[in-house]
Design goal:
This protein is an alpha/beta fold. The chain has helices at residues 52-61, 76-90, 101-105, 122-131, 146-158, 173-183, 208-214, 235-240, 250-254, 280-297, 334-337, 379-383, 402-412, 420-439, 456-460, and strands spanning 42-47, 66-72, 96-98, 112-115, 135-138, 163-165, 190-197, 306-312, 325-332, 343-349, 357-362, 365-370, 373-376, 443-446, 451-452. Mean pLDDT is 92; it is low at 1-34.
């Protein structure tokens, strides 16, 4: 499949003045958004109040040029937390609440939506929002499968929308400096890239202790219940399964994925540790350090021709079944990328051999960057806040605020720093690496056609069957 170029500008602009009384303007004296005329303000609806949703929303609440007017979540307690946060920031009770995101995106007076839902629901939510012509701030990875990502890209491009991916590292100074150095040839021609990611599983919502206490009678005290070791047909599984809480619309939460029993340590933020709903640490992080690797190389719209993955896995039927350690070796062919030479990228999770972050290794030096710091073969580069302008031949997109960059782009109709087609290409190595690990062999990828070459079994994993009645818009 060949994807059309992303349109960089459009003539559409929805002014809040057409909304009538459906959107209230907060009157609090401290409200920064009130300083912006209503006709110039961007109205935003937020969908999902799990881990990233609150962070994204709080960032938008600080931006004068936008106003959060609606919140949606399928869990009533989390929805109330969203309302309390938004209304508390504005000093009123004007934020509308929704359990059904379709009702929110049907509003013509909402310009943009922030979508932070589990990976397995990205395709359904994001294509629907795109068809309603909402500009989108969407979380990474772009989607649960490559086919869903292709559908999202098509929907965004067809409707001439602005898209920002939650790959916010692109808006941090150390990552910007690293990309400047690599793109401008300071380390010569890049031959290798090391992408260090986490391994194992992590109990983000802190539901594991209560789960282990519930199952304590089946396990010795020095070896508490591990969801990665619990499979169907065992007493531990039977105790793990409970009715879903009355506050959660579990049917909608499962969405297009395969229906299974409710298990608390597989829901909320821990959905990422089961391949039915998430992609493990590899897919959780590929849109960060893998994305930065592409950015520095100038491969934002390219990809690897060969991908071979190796991983250590729990039982495929376990509650947590994603790879705990993994290595994905990628080859980017010069005939495809237009680079001076082939580039080999190693994506490694759960190994001390490669540091967290992204390290480009070139013919004349190296650069490493992570959230924790920056280092390089040349000590002078480390001292710079950014590359001196006189030394720059290849400019790199610069953003200092990922969320304000989105709002500014919605107004100007100019692309964001992390548009949809870039997000698509950034996550392809992770998807192909997962497929390679699961089928147990190297994947050959046609970058232009976006097809796996000569492997029907692996090709089937580019998409997944949807549970009725869910579908892509």
């Amino acid at each position: 499949m060949t994807l059309a170029p992303l349109h960089s500008s459009i003539s559409r602009r929805r002014f809040l003045a057409t909304a009538g009384a459906s959107v209230a303007v907060a009157s609090s004296a401290h409200l920064r958004a009130a300083r912006v005329p209503a006709s110039d303000r961007i109205t935003i609806g937020v969908i999902g109040w799990g881990m990233q949703g609150p962070n994204n929303t709080k960032a938008f609440l600080k931006i004068p040029g936008c106003q959060v007017v609606a919140a949606c979540d399928i869990e009533s307690n989390r929805l109330q937390m969203a309302l309390d946060t938004i209304n508390g920031a504005y000093g009123n009770k004007d934020c509308a609440s929704y359990r059904d995101f379709h009702e929110m995106i049907a509003r013509d007076d909402i310009d943009a939506v922030m979508i932070a839902v589990p990976d397995h629901n990205h395709g359904v939510y994001m294509t629907a929002a795109a068809e309603r012509k909402k500009d989108i701030f969407g979380e990474k990875p772009l989607a649960h499968t490559i086919a869903e990502q292709q559908a999202i890209v098509r929907a965004v491009q067809k409707n001439n929308l602005i898209w920002q991916t939650g790959s916010w590292q692109r808006s941090l100074p150390q990552f910007y400096k690293a990309a400047q150095l690599v793109r401008n040839g300071f380390i010569g021609n890049v031959t290798h890239v090391e992408v260090g990611l986490p391994g194992g599983h992590h109990d983000f919502p802190h539901t594991l202790p209560a789960f282990q206490q519930r199952l304590a009678s089946l396990f010795p005290t020095d070896k508490p219940a591990n969801p990665a070791l619990i499979v169907p047909g065992t007493p531990a599984w039977d105790l793990a399964v409970t009715p879903p809480p009355a506050t959660l619309d579990y049917e909608t939460w499962v969405g297009p994925a395969k229906m299974g029993p409710y298990i608390d340590v597989h829901t909320f933020q821990n959905w990422r540790w089961n391949y039915n709903t998430g992609g493990g640490q590899l897919m959780d992080w590929i849109g960060h350090h893998g994305d930065i690797a592409h950015w520095g190389l100038g491969f934002d719209l390219s990809g690897p021709s060969e991908v071979e993955g190796f991983g250590e896995f729990p039982d495929r039927k376990a509650i947590w079944n994603t790879a705990t350690k993994y290595t994905v070796n990628c080859v980017y062919r010069k005939e495809v990328t237009g680079y001076a030479n082939d580039v080999r990228v190693a994506i490694v999770g759960g190994s001390p051999a490669i540091n967290m972050g992204t390290k480009w290794i070139g013919s004349e030096g190296w650069v490493w960057v992570d959230r924790s710091g920056f280092d390089a073969s040349n000590p002078e580069w480390v001292k710079w806040d950014a590359v001196p302008e006189a030394k720059i031949k290849t400019p790199v997109y610069h953003s200092t605020d990922h969320w304000a960059n989105f709002v500014d782009s919605v107004k100007s109709r100019k692309p964001t720093i992390a548009p949809v087609d870039v997000a698509h290409h950034s996550t392809i190595p992770g998807h192909l690496g997962t497929i390679s690990m699961l089928v147990g062999r190297k994947i050959h990828w046609d970058v232009a056609k976006e097809e796996i070459i000569g492997d029907p079994e692996a090709s089937k994993m580019l998409s997944r069957p949807y549970r009725s009645p869910y579908r892509l818009a």
